[in-house]
Design a protein that fits this description.
Elements lengths: L1 E3 L8 E6 L5 E8 L5 E8 L6 H9 L2 E2 L5
Antiparallel strand pairs: 1-2, 1-5, 2-3, 3-4
Length: about 70
Amino acid sequence: MYIRNFKDNSYGTYVVIQDDNGRKWVIDVTIEDNWSISVGKFLEVDAHFDRYTAEQYEKVSFKKEVTL
């Protein structure tokens, strides 16, 4: 999971998620001052979101590996 603009509500926070097979999704989330999270769009990369933009988000994000 790559997280961009963490807690920057003026621009939103973007999360890029990649599974073990390399499929990616971009999620637009808002993190409120009380730490509640609202999820906006959930878009699959290539099908509904540009791969180049997702890769740029990854470059300027911090990365966290999570096992679900």
